[in-house]
Amino acid sequence: MENEFADIKNEYETVIGLETHVELSTETKMFCGCKLSFGAQPNTYTCPICLGHPGSLPVINKKAIENAIKIALALNCNICENAVFHRKNYFYPDMPKNYQISQFDMPVGINGYIDVDMGSYVRKVRVTRVHVEEDTGKLIHIGSTGRISEADYSIVDFNRAGTPLIEIVTMPDIKSPDEAKQYMITLRNILLTLDVSDCSMEEGSIRSDANVSVKLISSDKLGTRTEIKNLNSFRFLQRGLEYEVDRHIDIIKSGGKVIQQTRHYDNKTQTTMVLREKEEAHDYRYFPDPDLVPMKIKEDWINKIKDTIPELPSAKEKRYKDFLGLSDYDSSFMANDFEISSYFEEVLKHHDNAKAACNWIMGDFSAFINKDGITLRQSKITPENLAGLIKMIDSKEINGKIAKLVFEEMYNTGKNPTDIILEKGLKQINDTEKLEKIIDEVILKNPDAVSQYKSGKSKAISYLVGQVMAKTHGKANPQIVNEIIIKKLS
Ligand code: ADP
Ligand code: MG
Ligand code: ZN
């Protein structure tokens, strides 16, 4: 019975598959001409089609299909030439037609994958399908908590009904909550690069349903899964999954059976609770929508779309490594966040010093924005001004110490570095004549350091340089000062 106390978790393996919904940022809705209108007065962007009036007929939004194909291609999928729209039948008050137009067995894209960089390894996550559907309206529950269970009544806003939605489904290839989080970060970065969605987490433009089960490492048989619905935060996704994995193992350990359920994650308690027992696909009575013509996605259209796909994050990372000479870690940091990579590249457009730009962004800049809880673009420093600062360091107009002061001022005021240096008189002193005068004074005042240096303690020189820097309020060019002192003392 030695094993009795062994950590039972070590015998189990986590299995996760994600279904991610992404709202496309097209001008108009999926099957009608209504504009997309997040945040508008409720029910002001609707028409007979997205309200499901009898007799109204849907028309496919070509731009939405184009973006779906773009996404499918970027996720290494095959495109189905004869993609079909089906009706998914069910009743819920946020859906006026009593069916949702979606895709079933012939989605736009199938059999793709995403490589998820975990730092020390890459997890290949296979993508089963990329399909197009329409979003539902939004129920607003009136009551103290805003949750349906405590509501006095609910009202409905159909502005969102009919918004083009892409669903991206993975195989159960994800092996930990951390990998799931990283998958979602990677996917979001690809989508932002493609410019097909604003991918706002707060507004729910990207949200995942997370399917999770555990199985014995020694077995190939998958365990029974539960599904956590509508996770629109990386942290919630990870925490919800961690909670579920522990819950599953506890149930199995105590001799019970996991029941297949749909669950909701509550961040207040950091637990999940049951929403409903899982419905089966056949409950939805899928059938091809007779109101829509079958699509014919031709090869030359696909090729045209292929040409519009910008450089993807993985290719960016490789280029930063191979052509800009950044380290593995730096390339990954610069490439795997759309906002960072676009900012970084804009800096380089103004001044071509990748290593310095990367160091500023990862160093002081990150420290400042993290402290304030903002992003690079939300800060007052424009890429052009950061480039300007780096340029001044490279041309030795200012030294590293002064640069840090200028940076802080740029961050606080949004002013450009040239103005700040002029205003504050921070220009570096490179004038040897001026420097020699100061150095002579320092040598006179510090006979101890001088004699230490002369007796072979070469380190004494940094003390002398330090004195000169102090006298010039950090403005002296330390390299030139160093050279002059050596010359004078030899
Ligand atoms: P459904 O039709 O019920 O939505 P799918 O077969 O489409 O089921 O799977 C939905 C998601 O659940 C996919 O991402 C898939 O990888 C994942 N999944 C399926 N079985 C398991 C399992 N045993 N454990 C974890 N995830 C699973
Ligand atoms: Mg599903
Ligand atoms: Zn409409």
What is this structure's SSE topology?
Blueprint: E1 12-23, H1 62-74, E2 78-79, E3 86-89, E4 99-102, E5 109-117, E6 122-134, E7 138-142, E8 153-157, E9 164-170, H2 177-194, E10 206-216, E11 226-231, H3 234-253, E12 261-266, E13 271-277, E14 287-288, H4 299-307, H5 313-322, H6 328-335, H7 338-350, H8 354-372, H9 383-394, H10 400-413, H11 417-424, H12 432-445, H13 447-454, H14 460-471, H15 478-489
Parallel strand pairs: 11-12
Antiparallel strand pairs: 1-9, 1-10, 2-5, 3-4, 3-14, 5-6, 6-9, 7-8, 10-11, 12-13
The site of zinc ion has 8 residues, from loops.
Mean pLDDT: 93
Q: Which small compounds were modeled alongside the protein? A: adenosine-5'-diphosphate, magnesium ion, zinc ion
- The percentage of residues in β strands lies in 15-25%
Strand element count: 14
Helix content range: 25-40%
Give the strand order of the largest sheet, numbering strands 1, 2, ... along the chain.
2-5-6-9-1-10-11-12-13
Biggest β-sheet, characterized?
9 strands, mixed
